[in-house]
């Protein structure tokens, strides 16, 4: 019997985490030698454009990488407008705060975002909500994602407030690929532990009202 796909495989988590890490690598590479905001943002934009070019060359769907490029451009514009290098990470800080709120609310109102994301990837729309076991599993696993964003905020905000640009860039790298990989692994473990024995899995919701 084939093993069920993991969340990382379904969501292309490893690739997405790597793509998201590279602009921060570029920023750090530009910032460290010169302590220049222009050099840092140029390095980030070069890496972001490289990611887009590589993914398009491989025939990947451009939507995700183009959104990533847009986010890097907005972050660069914010930093260049304020003249503060740490503001390159302001958008990331705000998005993590908004994510904590959005994911928490989604769990409370019983529309967990993890279920919405996986359901959209699998073409199920919201059919998974009619499966009480899947609804419970997605809700519990979504708390792992909330914790991920809380960890980022707890580390990013003090570094941002202290204007520790180089450390902030390094933290941004370390808290992207490793943290996302860990979050995907733990949330997948929570889903597996929550679903009862004999459940057909994420691709096959049991269509019955909660």
Automatic annotation (TrEMBL):
Keyword entries, A-Z: Membrane, Transmembrane, Transmembrane helix
InterPro entries listed in its UniProt record: UCP010219
Chain segments annotated as transmembrane: 37-56, 63-80, 100-122, 143-161, 167-191
Keyword Magnesium attributed: no
Pfam families tied to this protein: DUF3159 (PF11361)
Protein name: Intracellular septation protein A
């Amino acid at each position: 019997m084939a093993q069920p796909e993991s969340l990382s495989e379904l969501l292309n988590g490893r690739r997405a985490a790597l793509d998201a890490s590279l602009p921060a690598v570029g920023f750090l590479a530009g910032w460290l030698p010169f302590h220049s905001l222009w050099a840092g943002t140029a390095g980030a934009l070069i890496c972001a454009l490289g990611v887009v070019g590589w993914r398009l060359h491989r025939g990947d769907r451009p939507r995700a990488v183009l959104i990533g490029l847009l986010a890097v451009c907005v972050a660069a514009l914010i930093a260049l407008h304020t003249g503060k290098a740490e503001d390159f990470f302001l958008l990331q800080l705000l998005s993590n705060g908004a994510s904590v709120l959005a994911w928490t609310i989604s769990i409370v109102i019983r529309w967990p975002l993890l279920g919405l994301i996986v359901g959209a990837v699998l073409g199920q729309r919201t059919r998974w909500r009619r499966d009480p076991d899947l609804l419970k599993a997605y809700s519990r696993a979504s708390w792992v994602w909330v914790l991920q964003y809380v960890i980022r905020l707890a580390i990013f905000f003090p570094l941002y407030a202290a204007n520790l640009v180089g450390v902030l860039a390094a933290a941004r790298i370390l808290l992207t690929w490793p943290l996302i990989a860990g979050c995907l692994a733990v949330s997948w473990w929570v889903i597996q532990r929550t679903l009862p024995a004999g459940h057909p899995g994420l691709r096959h919701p049991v269509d019955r009202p909660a």
